[in-house]
Fold Peptidoglycan recognition protein.
Amino acid sequence: MRGFLASSIGVTCATALALPLALTSSDTAAVTRPAAETLPGSTQSLPLGPLGADRAGGAEPRDQGLARRDVRPFSLVGVVWDDPDVELHGRVQVRTRATGTTTWSSWQEVETHNHEHAADPGTAEGDSGRVRGSTAPLWVGDSDGVELRVRPDADGADAGRATGRAGRVLPEAESALPAGLRLELVDPGEHPAPPAGAGAPQGAPAKADGVHQAGLPDAAGGLLTAESAAASAVNADLAPLGATAVTPLDRAHTQADLLDARGGDVAKARPYIGPRPRIVTRRGWGADESLRERNFAYTRTVKAAFVHHSATGNNYSCSQSPSVLRSIYRYHVKSSGWRDFGYNFAVDKCGNIYEGRAGGVAKAVLGAHTLGFNSNSMGIAVLGTFTNTRPPKAAVTAVAKLTAWKLGLYGANPRGTTYLKSGGGNLYKKGSIVRLNVISGHRDGFATECPGRRLYSKLGTARSASARYQGR
């Protein structure tokens, strides 16, 4: 379904900033890297070719990839292809060279099944014509050399008869590797905003009036672009304009704020809602607001939370989390063709919580995280890969705190179940009414390994803790 522009702020922003951004040639390998102060980050897009002649490197005749080469600095890699309805049935491996050294990494696996993270079929975002097939992105750190190999499954015929992202049966002609394979090398750029640890600037909450004036000053004395002001203004009830973080509140004040906003009486009705956690805003992690589509899309409510892992690997420090987020954001928009960052929230290994898709952390923002179940839900990505690695306790606790607050805003019980209508996927047909846990793993709505078996096994702990934070 199409998102609803549900709030007065959302409607104002969507009306004034309505034109979507198309993929442009500015992200090809031939273009000079932009200056960080004008356009943070860049993407090099390199077409893949046959590796059959590279017998010394162990390539097979049907393999595609890139031989070792020098490139401009980057920190995250992924592979994209033309048709988002075609899956890559095979193995993608990459090795990289640390910037300024002669040291090459070992071969690293890139998660190939990423089609289950996307907008629902039939939505404006899903049918935009800009969406591409894509692997999960992999964080490799600051690098300036790359080598890549993509090997199709041995049984190409079986792969060709597999199903696409929305359950479409693919013909045998689409076996082997998808058409238009390209390697995407993403440089997150320098952090253009004040450090995320600086907290929210002091001052009165921002109002929506006039937020579209270019160069609007924020509460910290900086200047905001029109897009940055709009992305900040949708959090006006929680933080001043240009704040780098939404400050936490204890449970009593969170309850009081919620009831006050709804005209309730705290003495007569105490809602089940957890204390509001600290949330680093998009400005706090340095999102370049000129990348995304300018309007915001909303769904009706938030009945469930889907937990994911980003599958970007675990080789990052928490101080690098903003860079990881900027890289994923650019990969989602410029490489995969999505309208914005796919997840509503992200959580790093230290338990820091980050605003994801723009539209307001307290609002029912329509994401692109769980194919078929993006409506009336939210997506939380824990940064890392947790198939064989145990998620840090701090990350699981952060998921519990975030869900206790956000689900509490919409009256949902973290220990309970709910019903969602499928928008189409490989587990449930479009239109199916599906019973799901209020806190579910991605694999509950789609046949996928996400969020990794080690993180999935911790969801019971997260549900219980979230309910306790709500006072249940």
Notes: The chain is about 20% helix and 20% strand. The mean pLDDT is 82. Residues 318 and 350 are 6 Å apart (CA to CA). The radius of gyration is 22 Å.
